[in-house]
Structures are given as structure tokens and as C-alpha cells.
């Protein structure tokens, strides 16, 4: 039986040639951090809610108001769309969710979809040395990565909604880019820094949209200082 995901529109916008960003929570939470940060920084308007009998029974409370757990935000002038959710889709929802994003993007004549994932680094390197990579599903997407000097991942495995977006988008000849940022065992700091690296790459792909990542890096600095303080006593007695 097909899983239905319904959209309830709150506002009509002309989003032709817009970039759609997938903000559904992944295992590393990078996509959710990226989506929330961009929505807050760019002051995007909520234009739709998504609902399904298969979604978890959750109400998000913001500003004392309940919100659906899956929502769409956008800006007509900036040509940017964010699919945002605080829940991680279970396996049976992965394909329907990816298909919903792609169908919506095509119906609204958007230019492409960008998604984000974590890439486990081989070493515990300093967070400032973390890098972002990109995977384009079709030639035009790969050209965009090359033009903006974004390193392209040569080998690896991508799973979940991002994988479905890449594969289905390739079949439909619709541009999908997956941005991957390195993380290491220090997940608290890595998720924030990785999100900042992804946003910097998004900013390259959207030259007309200014997104300042200073606040994310400031949070990373605070967390690093806190971690160092916690480790000092252990090192002294080690």
C-alpha cells in the first residue's frame, strides 16, 4: 500500500529556478542543523506543512505555538526552499519522502535539490581542518561543484533520504547535490562544524544569497573550550 504524504499550503510563491534544501534529520543531525540555521538566518516564511498517517504523532512547540513536525519554508526573491523536520524518517518513509521532495521541486519548476550528510573522517583532526565534499547525480550538478571548487567525493556510501534523492533524481534527470562534511569521534563539536562547512558550500552554490556562518563557528569554539576543560582533570590523574 502506497504511503501518502499530504501538503497543506499556507502561502503561494513563485519558486521557479529555486534551490530546494532537504532538512530531514539524518543520523548525524547535520541536515537538520543546516536547515534550521538557514531558516532562522534568512528569516524564511513557512509556506506549507506536510502530514501523513505514517508520520510520528509529534507537535513541535515554538513561541508557545504547536507546529507540524514537517514543514516547508521559502523565500521567493532569494529563490530558496527548505524542507524541515525534527524527526528522522524511518526506513518505510525514506522513499516516499524523497519522492515528495523531488515531485514538489519539479512541480514548482525548481532548479535543483541539495541534501547533506556526515562523512566520518579518518583522524581526530582540528575542527578548522574539517572539509566538505560534494556528489552530483548528473553532469550539470557535477559541473556546478567543479565551477565552485567544491571537492567531489570519489568513493563512498550514502544512505537514507539523500541516497534516494540522488538515485531517483538521476533517473528523472533532475539535479541533486549531496554535500558531505567531515566529522570525527567528537560528535558534539563535529555536527556544528560540519553544518557550517555545508552551509559554506551552499553559499558558493547560491552566490546571490548571503549566509553568515560566524554564529555556528562561535558555538563550536565554546564547545571545544568546554571539552578541553572537562578533559584536563582526567589528563592530570591519567
Secondary structure layout:
Blueprint: E1 6-9, E2 19-23, H1 30-42, E3 45-51, E4 60-62, E5 65-67, E6 70-75, E7 80-85, H2 91-107, E8 112-120, E9 132-136, H3 139-147, H4 160-172, E10 176-183, H5 187-205, H6 214-237
Parallel strand pairs: 2-7, 2-8, 8-10
Antiparallel strand pairs: 1-3, 3-6, 4-5, 6-7, 9-10
How would you sum up this structure in a few lines?
By secondary structure, this protein is an alpha/beta fold. Helix content is 40%, strand content 24%.
Strand order of the largest sheet: 1-3-6-7-2-8-10-9
* Sheet/helix structural class: alpha/beta
- Domain count, please report it: 1
Task: Write out the CATH superfamily name.
Answer: PAC-like subunit
Distance between the termini: 58 Å
Say how many strands there are.
10
Name of the CATH first level = Alpha Beta
* Element order: H for helix, E for strand: EEHEEEEEHEEHHEHH
Description:
The chain is of the alpha/beta class. Helix content is about 40%, strand content about 25%. The protein has a single domain, classed as PAC-like subunit (Rossmann fold, 3-Layer(aba) Sandwich), CATH 3.40.50. The strands form 2 sheets. It has an 8-stranded mixed beta sheet, with helices on both faces. The longest helix is centred in the C-terminal third of the chain and has 24 residues.
Characteristic key phrases:
disordered C terminus, 238 residues, 40% helix, 24% strand, 10 strands, Rossmann fold
Amino acid at each position: 500500500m502506497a504511503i501518502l504524504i499530504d501538503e497543506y499550503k499556507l502561502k503561494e510563491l513563485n519558486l521557479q529556478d529555486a534551490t530546494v534544501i532537504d532538512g530531514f534529520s539524518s543520523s548525524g543531525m547535520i541536515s537538520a542543523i543546516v536547515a534550521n540555521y538557514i531558516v532562522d538566518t534568512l528569516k524564511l516564511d513557512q509556506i506549507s506543512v506536510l502530514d501523513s498517517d505514517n508520520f510520528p504523532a509529534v507537535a513541535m512547540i515554538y513561541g508557545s505555538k504547536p507546529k507540524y513536525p514537517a514543514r516547508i519554508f521559502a523565500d521567493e526573491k532569494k529563490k530558496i526552499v527548505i524542507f524541515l523536520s525534527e524527526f528522522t524518517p524511518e526506513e518505510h518513509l525514506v522513499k516516499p519522502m524523497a519522492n515528495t521532495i523531488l515531485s514538489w521541486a519539479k512541480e514548482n519548476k525548481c532548479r535543483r535539490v541539495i541534501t547533506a550528510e556526515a562523512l566520518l573522517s579518518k583522524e581526530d583532526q582540528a575542527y578548522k581542518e574539517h572539509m566538505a565534499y560534494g556528489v552530483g547525480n548528473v553532469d550539470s550538478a557535477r559541473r556546478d561543484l567543479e565551477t565552485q571548487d567544491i571537492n567531489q567525493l570519489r568513493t563512498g556510501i550514502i544512505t537514507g533520504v539523500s541516497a534516494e534523492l540522488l538515485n531517483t533524481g538521476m533517473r528523472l534527470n533532475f539535479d541533486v547535490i549531496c554535500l558531505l562534511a567531515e566529522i570525527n569521534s567528537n560528535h558534539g563539536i563535529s555536527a556544528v562544524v560540519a553544518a557550517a562547512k555545508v552551509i559554506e558550500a551552499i553559499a558558493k552554490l547560491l552566490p546571490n544569497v548571503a549566509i553568515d556562518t560566524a554564529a555556528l563557528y562561535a558555538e563550536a569554539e565554546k564547545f571545544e573550550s568546554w571539552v578541553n576543560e572537562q578533559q584536563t582533570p582526567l589528563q592530570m590523574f591519567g
